[in-house]
Structures are given as structure tokens and as C-alpha cells.
Input
Amino acid sequence: MGIDVPHLARILLFPIKSMEPVAVEQARVLKGGSLENDRVLAFFDAEGKFVNGKRCPAVHKLRAAFDPAMRTLRLAVPETEREATFHVDRERQAMEQWLGEYFGFTVFVKENRAGGWPDDTDSPGPTLISSATLREVAGWFGGLSVEQVRLRFRTNLEIECPEAFWEDRLYGPPGICVRFRIGDVLIDGVNPCQRCAVPPRDPATGQPYADFANTFRTRREQTLPLWAERSRFNHFYRLAINTRIPAGQTGKVLRVGDDVAVIGPAGP
Output
């Protein structure tokens, strides 16, 4: 398929919230509108707050891989001998102890197979961006590859198309969603995603990129396309879109290669 026809080029799931992604060829829609096995596990502190990159930079130096079929979680700290694999049901206490020793505070691991732990509970659908946008943004920062930018912005769905910021067509004025279709799955685009403290940091080390946010805001404003709903930008530190998946899509499957078509305004 040529890039003149927008299509789904990549699906990234994040089995453990704040940890590294897994590329898959297809993903099933759950009842609440999230994707199966996306952010199904999360780390919490004793106060019930997420242990994530926003609050705890040590997250960046931890590697974690969850196997949902085997029910195992592999944890490792690169360049050290700290590595272990746990069964998430039978060895939960030992797993949490290992994590507590790494972070230096009490950590609990919780699972939500029904809907995961989305960043935005009002828009729990998959986040979406275009490959052309990632290529454009990579060009704003010397030394950053497209893959490094992809890992910094942590988006579920990536659309191949000829125009950077193509996805800015997929939301309207406040209170208005834009409905689109990927394959046979209907999705409502809600708003441009507000970014946090994570993108300026190297995903592997946590090392910050100097003046990342200011550079990003300046270039984003300069390159905001005419089709973007400017009223949604109270600031320009926004990239990718948040979505909701409407009722009736449960069990449908998104597949790499699916075509993408914009339907139109869908109401709130």
C-alpha cells in the first residue's frame, strides 16, 4: 500500500505502564475502549500513586518485560547484575520486594486486564500519531533518531501518510470529536495530547535533552498546520491525539496495514 492512502503502519502496546513498548501486528479492542494487554500492569507506591517516569526518573533505567501467556515479569537493571523473573500471581510478594529494593520505597504491582491503566481515563482509547510527524519532530533535535522520538512520545498507533501532523485533522473544537475508521474499528479523536516531563528525557537513561520543551513548543507553533483546530492549543506542548472508542467496537481487531478514513464530526 502506498503512503498516499493513510494506513496503520505500527501498533505499540505498553504491557507495563511507563515501561518499554512491544510492537504487535494486531490488537483487540476491550469493552472500555482500550487495547488488550496495553498498560495491563502498573507499579504503585504506598500512597496508591503511579510509579512512573513523570514522578520517578529511576523508571528509565529499569527494564521490564511481561509475558501475558506465561504470566511472568522479567525485571533487569542494565550494566548491573540485578535481574530476576517472577510469576506475577505466585511470586507477587517477592516481585514487589525486588522492585522496592530497586526504587528505595514500597512498591505494589497491580493488574487490570479489563481496561488497563490509561493515562487519560476520560479518553482511554489508543493514542495516535503519524510516522511523518515523528520524522518531522526528529528533525527539530540534532542527534535524535525517529526511533528515539517514537520512544519518547510513547504512542499506540502510528499512521503512515504523506503529511506531517496529518493526525491534527482528528479532533474538533472543544466538545466536538472527529470520528474516523481504522479497518472496521470506529474511533473518536478527542484532543491533541498534552505532554509531560517524559519526552525530554532519554528513554534508556533518563538524561534530559537541553531545552527540549521550549524548542518543541516554538517549532510546534511554527509548523501547526492549517487544518489543526487552533482553539485546542492553550499551549503548544502537545503532540499526538487522545481517543475514545465508541460502543459497539468491543472485540474488533486493529491490524497493521488497515486503511484509515476520516468520517466527520461525532459530537462530544
In short: The first strand starts at residue 7 and ends at 13. The chain has a mean pLDDT of 95.
